[in-house]
Amino acid sequence: MTDLATNVSQPPAAGAAGRSLWATALMRLRRNKAAMASLVILLVYIFAGIFGPMLAPHDYARVYPDFVKVPASLEPYPRMDAVLPAAESTARRARLEARNIELDGNTLRLEATSRREIDPRVTRYFDRSDLFSNTHIVERSADGRSVLLESQVERYRFIFGTDANGRDLFARILISIRISLMIGALATGVALVIGVAYGATAGFLGGRIDNMMMRVVDILYALPFTFFAILLVVFFGRNVVLMFIAVGAVEWLDMARIVRGQTISLRRREFVQAAEALGVSAGGILRRHIIPNTLGPVIIYMTLLIPKVILLESFLSFLGLGVQEPLTSLGVLISEGARNMRAAPYMLLYPSLALTLLLFALNFLGDGLRDALDPKDR
């Protein structure tokens, strides 16, 4: 009796703190290792796109004529066995005859003669090259036909090699990640805002309004996209940001149809009818009940739309309507690598790996978000 009385007299335990639907989704997302790894990879891509071009050892637009299509290597260029032939070739262009060439570390000493008096400005031939810098005359003969030149050998590292124009491929990939992510984010964001609002409104109102709104979508579907892209260039010019905002304003059509179908299946659910019975406005029902319950399919479509826009940009750039030099994107780099695949396979390999990793990360993250936000699994 004493134990029973003691148990009865104890205060009830405090109830467990409730979780919001977003907190529950976040907890479930954290359990998905593939999704979290993909999220880390996407954050690395975003960081590389924002800060990478500023931290890269070379400017993405700088051309090195002496290092065209050099293979990827961790060792600096030029190779030591290539410095002496390059010095002889530069001396011949300056109309000098090289007598003796010595290389001490990164310092080059060259004895040269000429049939006539040597102009002191001959050092400019060496400084114009990517291999030599700070060239100056150390000694000069009395008649001025013999000089001793000293120059510093410039060493460059191209860890991903260079392209067909002699530009650092690593820096080009970093700037292409920035452009591709910016294009994908802008176009997808515009498609998300317009498509979700349009599709949810059409599906919830139904009837003649739904029919009229979807006929507008059908008419826009009939427009040839290539012709529309040419019109965009005519009206907006070659402005990448404005152009792909406009592209996103076309890509919302699929998003609107997906959201409309989900809305039609949700508008007669019990929680929607309960909200209507309580006097909640149509806009409130869309914001609080319809749109949140369509997030799963919407996010999955977003993960497919971003690579679709990236590939679309590559097609437009191939036609000369997209990204213009010296800017580039992953699609443009892959196109250039395909043209030089036999002579320089690394030009295709590294951009392809960068794009493939990005697409895998988007797909795995989309699957994880779908599982976390699916209302049927809560």
UniProtKB/TrEMBL annotation:
InterPro entries: BP-dependent_transpt_permease, MetI-like, MetI-like_sf, OppC_N. Residues 177-366 form the ABC transmembrane type-1 domain. This is Oligopeptide transport system permease protein OppC. It is found in: Cell inner membrane; Cell membrane. It is a multi-pass membrane protein. The chain crosses the membrane at residues 34-56, 179-204, 216-235, 241-259, 298-323, 343-366. Keywords: Cell inner membrane, Cell membrane, Membrane, Peptide transport, Protein transport, Transmembrane, Transmembrane helix, Transport. Coiled coil: none annotated. Gene3D superfamilies: MetI-like. It comes from Chelativorans intermedius. CDD domains: TM_PBP2 (cd06261). Belongs to the binding-protein-dependent transport system permease family. OppBC subfamily.
